[in-house]
Design brief:
Layout (H helix, E strand, L loop, with lengths): L9 E4 L5 E4 L5 H13 L3 E5 L5 H12 L3 E6 L2 E5 L13 E2 L4 H12 L4 E5 L2 H4 L4 H9 L3 E2 L10 E4 L8 E3 L5 H11 L5 E6 L6 H8 L4 E6 L3 E7 L8 E3 L4 H13 L4 E8 L6 H8 L3 E10 L2 E9 L7 E2 L11 H10 L1 E6 L12 H10 L4 E5 L2 E7 L7 E2 L5 H11 L6 E3 L12 H8 L2 E2 L1
Helix pairs in contact: 1-2, 1-3, 1-7, 2-3, 3-5, 3-6, 5-6, 8-10, 8-12, 10-11, 10-12
This protein binds shikimate-3-phosphate.
């Protein structure tokens, strides 16, 4: 049974101090990439700490359909035997990515560089999300979108290029998914494929491509941007990948510990790549006690242990250029902002409208039904924190895992319980969220 087969409402209630030490699951972005690069490499890739959430499992299935051997060898341990760059086989049926934009868009890039045709599909949420942003550069590289699917929504057929062309591409929005799709297609092209981003997005693809032996150079471009140049017709060698704990999942217990009085928790192995830690910077500016220790790194990805203690928070202004480094964290930041004293102004959130749901609207609704004053002004979100949240609301999750987790975190410290209509989608990114939060002392009923 998958998440879409069942509806599971739940409510979170005012909880006693959260305490204990946990390791949240492996990073979702790195887990997708480890499977995809493993499938495009020659030889065996061993992955430890893989996120075994629905999104990543769908990518594993897609890699199998495209000819790679993918096996689970132990708890969160996986092995992939790859087919080599441009070596994907024609899949027999459609590739179903469920809820995952990342899995779908990255695999589109990898398929675009192979002379095969594949049907891409997903659930109702993914079917509503824009794919043109990835298809546009892939068409420039020689891939073709089949039939009548020019609108760029799933389901669609992608015909990969027999002779992919390297391009120089400026991404229209700061998106690691667009950048990664172009780079993965560029692996099969002769010469150098270049992506220029005005604002740097997460660089896991670049770091991991280097780890697998590709020649890739990333240099600064302007104030906040990057220029990434990949030498194509690369041969990737199977590698060992250790997946650190996901900072986007850690965000939920972190905010919970900050707002539940008396809390003091430890989170181990949290990835601290600076292109992912905008939330930590923002929370610290709000007065949060988040201490970092035991820093170490693997395959270019730094990680650390975090100690988080309940803190009095104050409202801050979050600049738009920070958005790429915390794009998935605004929902839970809005929860923290609701418990802060004063207004938190989050600027430049246009991209939130095209995530698993329209997260700008959904965040505002989540706060409003729980008695928090909130306003959307253009692409900005303004939350009026009053130091406490009345709660008592029923939150609609819109097939979005992060809405469900954010609302449940809110209920742990609000005056009255907060209910979510469906927790099933939490399985896409954080299957153990509820038992793990309970182990820290969270009360759900
Ligand atoms: C991701 C990139 C982000 C993020 C998503 C994961 C990735 O999307 O929202 O959850 O792994 O590349 P965009 O790159 O489209 O902003």
């Amino acid at each position: 049974m998958t998440y879409s087969d069942r509806v599971a409402p739940l409510q979170a209630c005012s909880s006693g101090a959260l305490t204990g030490k946990v390791r949240v699951p492996g990073d979702k972005s790195i887990s997708h990439r480890a499977l995809i690069l493993g499938a495009l490499a020659v030889g065996r890739t061993e992955i430890s700490g893989l996120l075994e959430g629905e999104d990543v499992l769908n990518t594993a299935k897609a890699m199998r359909s495209l000819g790679a051997t993918v096996e689970r060898t132990g708890d969160f341990a996986w092995a992939v035997k790859g087919v080599g760059v441009a070596g994907f086989a024609q899949p027999r049926g459609p590739l179903d990515f469920g809820n995952s934009g990342t899995g779908c868009r990255l695999v589109m890039g990898a398929v675009a560089g192979c002379p095969i045709s594949a049907v891409f599909d997903g659930d109702a949420s993914l079917r509503s999300r824009p794919m043109r942003r990835v298809l546009d550069p892939l068409e420039l590289m020689g891939a073709k979108v089949g039939g009548s699917e020019q609108g760029g929504r799933l389901p669609l057929t992608l015909n990969g290029a027999r002779d992919p062309v390297p391009i120089i591409y400026r991404t229209p929005v700061a998106s690691a998914q667009i950048k990664s799709a172009v780079l993965l297609a560029g692996l099969a092209a002769p010469g150098v494929t270049t992506v220029i981003e005005q604002e740097a997005s997460r660089d896991h693809t670049e770091l991991m491509l280097r780890h697998f032996g590709a020649e890739i150079v990333s240099t600064k471009e302007g104030v906040h941007g990057r220029r990434i140049a990949l030498t194509g017709q690369a041969e990737l060698q199977g590698a060992h990948v250790v997946v650190p704990a996901d900072p986007s999942s850690a965000a939920f217990p972190i905010v919970a510990a900050l707002i539940v009085e008396g809390s003091d928790i430890l989170l181990s192995d949290v990835m601290t790549n600076p292109l992912r830690t905008g939330l930590f910077t923002t929370l610290r500016e709000m007065g949060a006690s988040i201490e970092q220790s035991e820093a170490r790194g693997d395959a270019g990805e730094p990680m650390a242990q975090l100690r988080v203690r309940a803190s009095k928070l104050r409202g801050v202004e979050v600049p738009p250029e920070r958005a790429p480094s915390m794009i998935d964290e605004y929902l839970v930041l809005a929860v923290a902002a609701s418990f802060a004293e004063g207004a938190t102004v989050m600027r430049g959130l246009k991209e939130l409208r095209v995530k698993e749901s329209d997260r700008l609207a959904a965040t505002a609704d989540m706060l409003r039904v729980n008695g928090v004053k909130v306003e959307i002004s253009g692409d900005d979100l303004i939350v009026e924190g009053k130091g406490h949240v009345p709660g008592g609301g029923l939150v609609a999750t819109h097939m979005d895992h992060r809405i469900a987790m954010s609302a449940l975190v809110m209920g742990l410290a609000s005056d009255r319980p907060v209910k979510v209509d469906d927790t099933a989608f939490i399985a896409t990114s954080f299957p153990d969220f509820i038992p793990m939060m309970r182990s820290l002392g969270a009360e759900f009923s």
